[in-house]
Automatic annotation (TrEMBL):
Species lineage: Eukaryota, Fungi, Dikarya, Ascomycota, Pezizomycotina
GO CC entries: fungal-type vacuole lumen
BP GO terms, sorted: proteolysis involved in protein catabolic process
Organism for this UniProt entry: Hyphodiscus hymeniophilus
Pfam families registered for this protein in UniProt: Peptidase_M20
Any GO MF annotation of the entry: carboxypeptidase activity
Gene3D superfamilies, A to Z: 3.30.70.360, Zn peptidases
UniProt name for this protein: Carboxypeptidase
Amino acid sequence: MRIIISAPDFRDGEADATRGLPDQPLFQSQHPSDVSNINLDLFKDQYYRDLVARRLSGAVQIPTVIADGIGEVGKDPRWGIFHSFTQYLRKTFPILHDRLSLEVINQHALLYTWQGSNPKLKPLLFMAHSDVVSAPESTLERWTYPPFSGHYDGEYIWGRGSEDDKSNLIAILSAIDALIHCDFTPTRTVLVSIGFDEEGGLDQSNGARYLAERILETYGEDGIELIFDEGIAGIEEHFGTEFALPATAEKGYLDVQITIDTTGGHSSTPPDHTCIGYLAQAINAIEASPFTSRLTNKNPTTVYLKIAALHSKNMPLSLRKAILDPSSSNEVLNYMDSSLERRALVRTSTAVDIMRGGEQFLANALPETAYAVVNHRIAVEDSIQVLKDYYIRILSPLTKKWGFSLIAFGNDINNSCDSVGTVTLAGHYELEPSPVSNHRDVRFTWLADTLQAVFGKDVCVAPVLLTGKFMFRPSEDPAAY
Ligand SMILES: [Zn+2]
């Protein structure tokens, strides 16, 4: 789960991100009301579990894949499958569709409104998406059960979207449906927003963008109390202890394209380096200067580690001590750096993913242009600008040495009329790291309370950072839940 709280973000240098954390169970639940008790019993009931599993299975069986090169929504018939999906939801949750209002936006984006009794309170917003990535023909034999079988083996549901993200979608609607059956009416309005093209591949969003515009139009800037979106699914076991891990921040994103242009010529009389050789040197310089790992109070990973050290059952003693001892930060960083997954949580990552240059089957001619694309997931302490400055710092001395011009992100850095080549840097898909939601905010406690009431008080709740593209955020008014 990813949760967005619109509230002041953490500031760099804040004394201690874990200050004020109570002992685990971190957040004491209130006595559950009658409705909660009925629902908690329901969730343990095998019949109900099977019912929700069948709902998810049915959703997985509808292949809501966005085809390659698909045209405009409403014109390309391949979008038609999403009508079937909306119909499926109407058929599966008839009472919910009776009670909640549903606005269909841009043909397939769904915005449900469950009106709260107190219109002065800002709504809660739950988000999910109905599309899934494709399952290419060539991979079909590697599937244990076909990707759109929705096979339910009594424990798992198999197929595309069974986790990402139809599980969220069906869980949200099932929870509301269960509450309606208890005659529950929320005090605060609840919105459910379902996009249909989250998995990408399109130039711009046809779903979430329209939903966001509509929500903004209705509720205004900062008009939502809390946003819940997809993130880490389910309960995970870490150090012999069950953890629920709502993400309170997400790394940023940037692709940097490095293009090197040189004059061509014949391969029989080559210079020492072609543009491909120069590009290799540039890549080598970037890989030789990785971003450093650090654990600051801005990064939710710091809080997660502290909670794990204080409350997990089987953390090795040396690690536990290192995390709890402020003078042992290097040991903690060594631990984080010792796995690729953990390392990605404490630094801006660098991955040289694409390289092209020269003409195929034309080894006689010197290549005139070559480029590489380097993907970065940006740490919460860094920014797009930090990355751009980094590239200039690394590549400026090289281009001077080569006698090349450097055009970095639209600016001439080294430019002389007698340069013999050009290095051009361009940024694509720029996305700053998300703001960091405050785990000490009372609204994080609402969520933690709920998690512990459902999954038990032995479950540790800790905020985490998402390294992919997926987070918890409150607004200003921490009024009644
Ligand atoms: Zn997803």
